[in-house]
Amino acid sequence: MSRHPPALLLATAALLVAWASPPPRFDQAAADAVAAEVLARAPSAALTIAVERRGEVLFARGYGLANVKDRVEASGETVYPICSISKNFAAAAVLKLVEQGRVVRDAPAARYLPGVAGLSPEITVDELLNHSSGLGSYNEGAGWDAVAARAIPRGEMLARIASAPRVPPGREWGYSNSAYYLAGGLVENVSGKSYWEFLEEEFFRPLGMRHARPCAEVEVSARARGYRAEKGSLVGAETENWWNPFAGGGLCMTSRDLLAWEAALDSGRILSAESVRAMRTPTRFPDGRRYDYGLGTRMGTFEGHPVVGHTGGGQGFSTVLMRFPEDGLTVVVLKNFSGGPAAATIAARLTRRLLGLPGFAPRGGAPPAGVLSAVAGDWLGDDGPFRLATRDGKLAVELPGGAAPFESPWMGGTTFAAGEEETARFEVANGRSGRASVYGGGLFESVIRRSKPGDGTVSRNP
Predict the structure, then answer these.
(1) Is the pTM for the entire model greater than 0.85?
(2) Which residues, at least 6 apart from 453, have a Cβ–Cβ distance to it below 8 Å?
(3) Who contacts 412 (Cβ-Cβ below 8 Å, separation ≥6)?
(4) Of 68, 127, 210, 414, which has fewest CB within 10 angstroms of its CB?
(5) Residues 30-57 pLDDT 10s
(6) CA dist., res. 207 & res. 452, Å (int)
(7) What CATH number did the domain enclosing 379 receive?
(8) Contact assessment for residue 330 and residue 259, using Cβ atoms and an 8 Å cutoff
């Protein structure tokens, strides 16, 4: 007998979980209102929102302009670059090879990537997928902008990965686009097919995801364009060649394609229950630390509701796929301009209305003095260095360059608000914190750390 439950049993189990909780409410006017709030802040372009509940697509609608110059309106069928949501597919592709007995998760990744210079034999396959490889990202540093517009050949990209700064594997969580570039190469080496062909044959065609393909193969006129604000107007934001992100961020598709993908994962149609569980199991380190990122999957809780999925961003786009398994609810937001709230914030606003939750708000009151003293000091995050300081019994954020300090409201325990629907949960030991997990819309985003002398680089974490 197979050790994996058949798809029917998986689907039945998912329904029982969903029926055990009150059904999410859906009001189309709520989605319309959330979209209107976002687009009212000029300059803006477009976003698409899609909602699925217990196997039924309730809503998929576009708002605004997918292409400003040609006045093309967004719809539920608009194709977007999904950016780093692509990592969810890359992890699934590797796990498909694991199921076929062709890859071992705790084996050295170098076994499946022969000839890749600088790839430590200590890095396992899982460590490529859970961002603990220590490899960093090929697109870090000022030199990347000078070459990003051209399609970088595989050998040149591997040389960039080999020469980039790194830390020993299995010791820290650090977002790594380089690791996912290598994961795509692993799929190609083991399967004997191009990465994109493997996705098409194993996932896209069986699931009817007819719009899913590499962005570099999609005509610009057939998808949303990416924009940024400049002097109060929208200008094109896309400056990097879409071939370069590869398995870590190179996919395009519609919101309905993403709903179909998430439904297939939950029902066992595309991967075994064991593989999906691996994708959604937090990363643990030998010293006991745990981070809510599995294999190509972000996790967390949203007002007590477990949530899984992934975010993406870059070149003007902001994307999110959120699945609330206990509520039988999936929310997708795809956005094509860099101003205003991120896609995860927009999805969180809508989810609060769908689940009847109160608005985002800090706990209020003054945090304990011991917590304030534990977190005060110099820190380094995805957006650069900053300082946390105590002011009048509250936590203040001080940015370099003379910007005015602003308060980081207390959310209870060792958690502080970092923005709307964004929180930082500090690890405190012996009266001092050296790390914190950042969450957006309930999903784990990144780890911030106390800065050290000489820190000056920032990881790009879309």
Answers:
(1) yes
(2) none
(3) 363
(4) 210
(5) 999 999 999 999 899 999 999 999 999 9
(6) 48
(7) 2.40.128
(8) yes
